[in-house]
Amino acid sequence: MTDVLARSLPALDAPRLAPPLPRKGVLRLSPLNARRLDNFQANRRGYWSFWIFMVLFVLCLFAELIANDRPILVRYKGEILFPVVVNYPEEKFGGFLAQTDYRDPVILKEIAENGWALWPVVRFASNTINLDLPTAAPSPPSWLLKEETCRPIAEKKGVQGCQGLEWNWLGTDDGGRDVLARIIYGFRISVLFGLILAVISSAIGILAGAIQGYFGGRIDLYFQRVIEIWSAIPSLYLLMILSNFFQPSFFTLLGILLLFSWVALVHVVRAEFLRARNFDYVRAARALGLSDATIMVKHVLPNAMVATMTFLPFILNGSITTLTSLDFLGFGLPPGSPSLGELLLQGKSNVAAPWLGLTGFAVIAVMLSLLIFIGEAVRDAFDPRKTFA
Amino acid sequence: MNTVSPLPPLLSVRDLSVVFRQGGKETLAVDHVSFDVAAGETVALVGESGSGKSVTALSVLRLLSYPPAHHPSGSVLFKGEDLMTASEEALRKVRGNAITMVFQEPMTSLNPLHPIERQIGEIVSLHKGLSGDKARQRTLELLTQVGIRDPEGRLGAYPHELSGGQRQRVMIAMALANAPDLLVADEPTTALDVTVQAQILRLLADLKRDTGMAMLFITHDLGIVRKIADRVCVMTQGRIVEHGPVERVFTHPEHPYTQRLLAAEPKGRGTPPKADAPVIVAADDLKVWFPIRKGFLKKTVGHVKAVDGISVSVREGETVGVVGESGSGKTTLGLAILRLIASQGPIVYLGQRLDGLSSRAMRPLRRNLQIVFQDPYGSLSPRLSVADIVGEGLTVQGQGLSLEEQREIVARALVDVGLDPAAMDRYPHEFSGGQRQRIAIARAMALSPKFVVLDEPTSALDMSVQAQIVDLLRDLQARRNLAYLFISHDLRVVRALASHVVVMQNGKVVEQGPADQVFDAPQTDYTRALFAAAFRLETADAGVVRE
Question: Does B125 reach chain A within 8 Å, measured CB to CB?
């Protein structure tokens, strides 16, 4: 059949009618998407929230370079070492442990005498215990400490008052761990968990909704009943029961939550596909001989994506909140993991240490608010009344 | 521009402008329009879509949404009172009372949750203060007046239980409830079938004669204007370019736009195919039955026979016209022949049986069998550029074509339908309705098909654009020797294109034959009634057509 089409092609020397291909690339947006971008930017609050969130998120992705108990870069006896990436045995610095404790004064002195070290801004990792606390853990933020509280430990360390001690900007938790370091790592784990959960559950939800909506009929009928029964299972109780049998890790927790969260988008996507499968341009595509899969992806899915994109930030928020509440209840990530829920739990157990609860609250509130503001801007961007006006 | 009328004007619109402000952009929809409506007179505002005729009518009662709309100039004097500056309360007394409106879409203008007694009764009680038996009595009177059969039995009916024509009659009854001085009818028959349209127009004319009310009639259909109006104002681009008594405007149009509008009727006749032209597509005793399921176990208790045993064949270079009212199954027939919906009965394409082929086996044949849909706004994906839309079939069907070759075919298809190929990387929303329909035709033509189903390709378009599309289709057919199955309720367009006509009613063929024979000497009552309604806007005897 190609030859038939080729016949309608002009001879090679005939003048070409088609205009040259417009430049295709990342920067070439369709007018529709360009208008959406404009709408997104027009929502100033959402637009700025997006940038603030992105800066925080990208910074936290490199948490190891911001808060760590080992230097980023060390020059030791003419050698350049990367303790952040590579585990050097302590032998290297004349010690005997399998792993170097860079916070050990002996090691610190050894490195200072034979080269230099570049430290992160915060010299604690999420699980580093500050052994030189002036008070019993939880210890308040260093700038709240009084000189007389610091004096014993400062004299022992041979430094000048509180200023000379290592600072815990937001205090420590009841394990003597730096709160600032923990929220940096906790923010990262929360957002990553939320993102992965939201993206995977959206993908499954879209697929399920698309199949139901596009084919309809019996498939739709049975699938809908299965979903109804499935979503009636109380996932929280199931999680509690399961956590009695094994200690959930990041990925098992993700898996269990995924089992139930994919249902969220099915209904919108299904409705969108049910509606769009009778559009004239979908019929026209079938008349052109496109396969079902192509039609679904190329013609119907973009319709459903509007609803999906509008819901995504809110699903992301929901996922983060789920993880936080599970951690708060003690059914979440394994003990010792830096998590915002666990910080809140500590705040509840240590009412006398308000910096724990306040910090946890502030971080969660800011994170969720930023995401909601972004969500609102995304909703504006995809608002058909604004896009097609 | 002042229209002189022998009677003192009931409604006098002076220098009216309407501006819509959206997103910092101002659009002038109505541009300093003036006209009068005298008591007992019918004035028609006629124009194509976007001419501002509906906006003008809605401004009379200040029914636009303010903002975005506002009136930089103008006054609307009704019985000496300026409605533009009247208080909201004073306006409410005029709306639905002295001036009433009938809208185009009777389904959405009625509340689907209330029976018609309540909807009419509400108006009666609101403005006349009647209640109980008296309100019921008045409602019955009104329903009788608008010609609803068995009005008593219909009181409890919900809008969905009524036909389109009956719903429009109910709307008119509601408009008449308070014996208005002026009835504003905004395209009241556009959504209706031709036979029903003729009935409604006759009803309006009768009511006007009996009650002596004036009418402001908004329409795009010149035939209706000629039939019903005393005077006509021709609008385009927000201005009234010509006005005067209907006879004068129709016989001696002065403004070039009016002349163009009057000349825009689709012309020509379909040419019969060559005697030895091969049959491209034939269907024999084709049936599309949708099962009606009832009860818990969803047993099939009957069928909706959308297409019930229709045989049709289309030869090379021939146009077969399929006409009928809405619900007669014409579109279903077209979709079934292309195997876009399931059907029973053999369908043959150039000797090859299509029925029973899997959708995978159908795919390579699809390029020979194409379709053009009615609504050029719905049939083009808003997310794809014109090049992508027209080239879509090529990516599927023309394996081995390079991107450049494909773009070249797309460009040639666009030139064929009279569009500039330089615009191929733009998106559908940048084109007008007529241009969009050209794109849809180019999409079908890009694959060089042999058979094209044209499903009401002109119905959503303005009259002047319709004629252009008809010319384009005829031209393409002549050049490529195409076989068309032309589905339309618009008999003028069918007359201009088809050489063979099939008249359908309720899924069955009522009459078929060569176009000249069917149009000049229709054999059945139904066909005669259909033609009388379509060409002369005359109503038929009871029982022949629906109401």
Answer: no
